[in-house]
Every structure is written in C-alpha cells, then in structure tokens.
Amino acid sequence: MPRSVNAVASRARRKKVLKQTKGYFGRRKNVWTVAKNAHEKALSYAYRDRKKKKSNFRALWIQRINAGVRQYDMSYSEFMGKIHKKGIELNRKALADLAMNHPDAFKAIVDAVK
Q1: In CATH, what number does 7-113 get?
Q2: Which of 47, 78, 88, 92 shows the greatest Cβ crowding within 10 Å of its Cβ?
Q3: What does the pLDDT look like over 7-59, one tens digit per residue?
C-alpha cells in the first residue's frame, strides 16, 4: 500500500504562511523554507515588541511630563514625589496628555503640588 500524505492540508498550511509573508524582500516572500523562517522570526519580534511597546510609551510620557514641569523650575522626580505626597491619583499617561494638550490644566496641577 502506498504511503498516504495529506497534500491538501500541507499545501494549505504553506499557502497560509506565504500569504502572510507577502511584501517581504527577496526570497523571503516566495520560497517556502526561507519564508517559513522569516515568518517565525517576525512572530517572535511581534510578541517581544508588544511587551516593549509599554515601556516605550512610559518613557515617552516621562519625557513629556519632564518637559512640562521644567517650565515651572521643577524636575520630573521632584514633581512625581510631590504629586504622590499630595495624593493626586493621575497616572503618567494622563499627566503627559495634560502637559501636551492642556497646559492650563497642567499648570494648575503643578501649582497644587508646589
């Protein structure tokens, strides 16, 4: 009896990966073994960078808050220490948004902690 292989399923699996690698450079888009490796690497980068995205945004918010409070002769660490002592429960995301888009409201918060 000849060996039975499920060619339909394996072809579908390959087509799925090749469809996801569409747009890659060179052989990474159309040669199965190269595309498979590129796709696996891309998925690992995507997983890693979903985690990294959170720290990148936190760093951005800190920079924006720091730039905002420097206008009022205060450092970021000094500001955050005072804001926690006062019990103001605003996270860095909200504070960064206020510093960028609503400078009057941000100034009121800075005045409240001074």
Answers
A1: 1.10.1900.20
A2: 92
A3: 999 999 999 999 999 999 999 999 999 999 999 999 999 999 999 999 999 99
